[in-house]
């Protein structure tokens, strides 16, 4: 029987992790298989960087994955969150190439970059940081065309803030801007939540299916998609937090495994192993939520990591959107 997502599946915004969860018990040697979903993986030859392509092809794949039909590209590297300029430059090359593939094919392109999130909460400030550093050119194209050459496209930037600070639905702000400036495409950047602690701050997901602001922390707002905005919406997200219940669930699994390793015939440990994932995860949430609320965990050095991630993403966008900017121009146009 085809396995599908359930209400107790640990929270994640990554299509890659959803696929892995659905195929947790798959024993086939040639990878995992989900009906209606195509998955490909490549490994960088020079650096420890993995790129995974998840293509949800039809409505069956959409139901199985719980995500819209479209492409989800995931770039992973533990060096992403460290001060490693050489690896960062390679990641920028990979991410910019993937963004470029998803952009509309036009000789003169107008892109609106939208930085989602709360600039006053460090794990959620990635979007505002990136949108504040991309190379904005719309005003130059309109008012000082002689100051910029034809190798640079039109790019606008918007940081709408969060409804808790503005009192306005984020989607309403963006829709109003879109109706006035009429971009060919929106690139939305947001912080996400991951299923695995190893993917926190070390994973970039790019998709062409849009995004729901606040979805990573369970505060889903009006979706940003081609259907709601009237133009294609690309989403770039980095998981900066993990749900506490998910973290405790995984820790308990590791503890049971270790206890059974040292005492394989212990009846109590064996009994714990037989508890279903649904029962275990539900029990953990029932205990934690009344005590801690909807708590999320992030890295202790998140301030420094956000700086690295911001640099990688804004440079990737600049290179993808503006044909006249290449790897040699990295950081040249930062504010």
Automatic annotation (TrEMBL):
Coiled coil: none
Hydrolase as UniProt keyword: yes
Gene3D superfamilies the UniProt entry points to: HybD-like
EC identifiers of the protein: 3.4.24.78
Propiece residues: 1-13
Keywords of the record: Hydrolase, Protease, Zymogen
GO BP term, example: spore germination
Post-translational modifications: Autoproteolytically processed. The inactive tetrameric zymogen termed p46 autoprocesses to a smaller form termed p41, which is active only during spore germination.
Reaction(s) catalysed (UniProt annotation): Endopeptidase action with P4 Glu or Asp, P1 preferably Glu > Asp, P1' hydrophobic and P2' Ala
Any GO MF annotation of the entry: metalloendopeptidase activity
InterPro entries: Pept_HybD-like_dom_sf, Peptidase_A25
EC top class, as a word: hydrolase
Signal peptide (from-to): none
Family the UniProt entry places it in: Belongs to the peptidase A25 family.
Function (record text): Initiates the rapid degradation of small, acid-soluble proteins during spore germination.
Subunit structure: Homotetramer.
Cited NCBIfam families: GPR (TIGR01441)
Name the record gives this protein: Germination protease
Organism: Zhenhengia yiwuensis
Top-level taxonomy: Bacteria, Bacillati, Bacillota, Clostridia, Lachnospirales
Gene designation per UniProt: gpr
């Amino acid at each position: 029987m085809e396995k599908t997502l359930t209400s107790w599946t640990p929270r994640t915004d990554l299509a890659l992790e959803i696929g892995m969860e659905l195929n947790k018990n798959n024993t086939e040697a040639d990878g995992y298989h989900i009906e209606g979903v195509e998955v490909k993986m490549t490994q960088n030859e020079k650096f420890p960087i993995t790129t995974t392509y998840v293509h949800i092809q039809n409505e069956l794949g959409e139901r199985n994955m719980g995500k819209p039909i479209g492409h989800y590209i995931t770039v992973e590297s533990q060096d992403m969150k460290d001060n490693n300029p050489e690896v960062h430059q390679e990641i920028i090359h990979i991410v910019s190439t993937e963004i470029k593939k998803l952009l509309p094919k036009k000789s003169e392109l107008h892109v609106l970059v939208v930085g989602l999130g709360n600039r006053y909460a460090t794990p959620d400030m990635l979007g505002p940081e990136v949108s504040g550093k991309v190379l904005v050119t719309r005003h130059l194209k309109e008012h000082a065309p002689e100051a910029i050459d034809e190798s640079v496209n039109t790019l606008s930037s918007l940081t709408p803030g969060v409804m808790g600070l503005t009192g306005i639905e984020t989607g309403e702000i963006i829709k109003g801007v879109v109706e006035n400036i009429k971009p060919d495409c929106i690139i939305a950047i947001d912080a996400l939540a991951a299923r695995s602690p190893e993917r926190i701050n070390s994973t970039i997901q790019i998709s062409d299916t849009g995004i729901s602001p606040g979805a990573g922390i369970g505060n889903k707002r009006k979706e940003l998609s081609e259907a709601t905005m009237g133009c294609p919406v690309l989403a770039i997200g980095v998981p900066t937090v993990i749900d506490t219940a998910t973290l405790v669930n995984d820790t308990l699994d590791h503890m049971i495994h270790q206890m059974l390793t040292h005492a394989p015939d212990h009846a109590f440990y064996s009994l714990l192993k037989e508890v279903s994932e649904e029962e275990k995860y539900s029990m953990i949430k029932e205990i934690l939520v009344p005590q801690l609320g909807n708590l999320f965990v992030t890295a202790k050095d998140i301030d420094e990591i956000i700086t690295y991630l911001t640099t990688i993403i804004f440079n990737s966008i600049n290179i993808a959107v503006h044909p006249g900017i290449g790897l040699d121009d990295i950081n040249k146009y930062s504010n």
